[in-house]
Amino acid sequence: MEIKKDWWKFLSIVLVLTAIIGGMLIPVPRLAILNETIRNLFYHVTMWFAMMILMTGSVFYSIKHLRSFDVMDDAKARISAEAGLVMGVLGLVTGSVWAKFTWGAYWVNDPKLNGAAVTILVYLAYMILRNSLPEERQRGRISAVYNIFAYVLLMVFLMILPRMTDSLHPGSGGNPAFSNYDLDDTMRIIFYPAIIGWTLFAAWFAQLKFRLFKLNYKLESDLFDLKQPS
Amino acid sequence: MFKEFSALLGKEIILELRGKYALGGLLLYVISTVFVVYLSVVKVTNIPVWNALFWIIFLFAATNAVAKAFVQDGKEQLLYLYTLASPRSVIMAKITYNTLLLVTVSLVTYAFYGLFIGNPVENTWLYLCTLILGAAGFSGTLTLLSSIAAQTNNNVTLLSILGFPVLMPMLITLLKLSKNAADGLDFSVSVKYLPVLLALNLIVAALSYILFPYLWRD
């Protein structure tokens, strides 16, 4: 790795370590019910932010693919969605543990949790759709359309509907938002870098997967060229 | 554009009326499902449960109804259609036609469901209004997805996998609105859901309009 080109990878390691070590060490506000579990904010919430950023990246490449029909754009869309899905599942698991200790059950009926479940279902469906289309160009085109369609409706589901109903999460249904009580200034020092850290970490993961894809693709097309009589 | 659209819509309706078995099969599907529910529960007095069962039946019936939207026309027939008409009029005609179909299916479901399992709905007009909005929304979402699913070989399963999570925002809003209508709550309580549903319908229609041309270009 070169420092000049790969500085963001070092940054991601530093930021994620800051989140893990710093998040456990810094003083946090003493709040009823939440108590020490508030530290999960640095992991659960930031992983969801990272997932949303990666899914947005995935949609960006899907739109690009529909304009260019470039196989590489399609691969980037798929790989960003996969990396986002990893972050999403981690966010769901950490959230579930948090829910157990604050709300008393691993799963509670809450608009945000339903949104999380639906997000995971949508991207699993996206993966299944990709696997059921054998032809490469057709697969790219059709899954890009689904990706865009689902992303827009997902945004409606995650951003608009929870604001219309009560939620146990902060910021809706009469519960105060983060900024009001549970995110004081020391927590911010960890919270925002953690978002950037996880996002960069997932982007790194996606970059490695993309390189692997590119090598495989090149290998396959080289083999194909060898087989062709010239 | 409009002439093209109405010709395509006419074609869909004529085709449906000519092959009566498809519509008949669909209605029979709904009636048998309602009857299965009737045999399992006989009477439901709890309104949320009554409402949820109704929407589940309608959701599955709608998925089955729309799944055939693009399978019915063969691949060659679709190619021929695309050389004659613009893809945008094709999708708009299909969505409109499926909306009409789903409104019919929902009314039939409602009638039989009410007949067998009982009809506790207090505000019938609002309930019917919810049904129409729901039918339009399901049709807008599922028609585009059905053209995606039609390109693979396990059509109905894939349509459900792709469709159900995407339908969730609409379904949750529909459930709330219809429950309020069934409970006969004051209109001012439910009025906030109507713009949400209308907006969702507009969003899915606009997305289908924009994205459909990419689905058939080879």
Biggest interface, CB < 8 A = A-B, 27 and 30 residues
Tell me about the biggest sheet of chain B?
none
Largest sheet of chain A: none
Q: What is the molecular shape of chain A?
A: globular
Give start-end ranges of low-pLDDT stretches of chain B: none
| Terminal-residue CA separation of chain B | 23 Å
> Given the helix and strand composition of chain B, which structural class is it?
mainly alpha
Oligomer: heterodimer
**Gyration radius from CA atoms of chain B, angstroms:** 18 Å
Radius of gyration of chain A: 20 Å
Structural class of chain A: mainly alpha
Look at the structure and give the mean pLDDT of chain A.
82
How many independent structural domains of chain A?
1
Portion in strands of chain A: under 5%
- Terminal Cα span of chain A: 39 Å
How many discrete structural domains of chain B? 1
Low-confidence stretches of chain A: 172-177
Instruction: Classify the helix fraction of chain B into a percent range.
Output: over 70%
- The ordered H/E elements of chain B are HHHHHHHHH
- One letter per element, helices H and strands E, the order of chain A comes to HHHHHHH
Number of strands of chain A: 0
What does this structure look like?
The complex is a heterodimer of chains A (230) and B (218). With 230 residues, chain A is mainly alpha-helical. Chain A has seven helices and no strands. The radius of gyration of chain A is 20 Å and the shape is globular. Chain B is mainly alpha-helical. Chain B has nine helices and no strands.
What descriptive keywords fit this protein?
heterodimer, A: 230 residues, mainly alpha, 7 helices, 0% strand, B: 218 residues, 84% helix
Write a concise synopsis of the structure shown:
The complex is a heterodimer of chains A (230) and B (218). With 230 residues, chain A is mainly α. Chain A has helices at residues 3-25, 44-68, 71-102, 111-131, 136-160, 178-181, 185-227.
Topology:
The complex is a heterodimer of chains A (230) and B (218).
Chain A: H1 3-25, H2 44-68, H3 71-102, H4 111-131, H5 136-160, H6 178-181, H7 185-227
Helix pairs in contact in A: 1-7, 2-3, 2-5, 2-7, 3-4, 3-5, 3-7, 4-5
Chain B: H1 2-18, H2 20-41, H3 47-67, H4 75-84, H5 87-117, H6 124-149, H7 155-183, H8 187-190, H9 193-216
Helix pairs in contact in B: 1-5, 2-3, 2-5, 3-5, 3-6, 3-7, 5-6, 5-9, 6-7, 6-9, 7-9
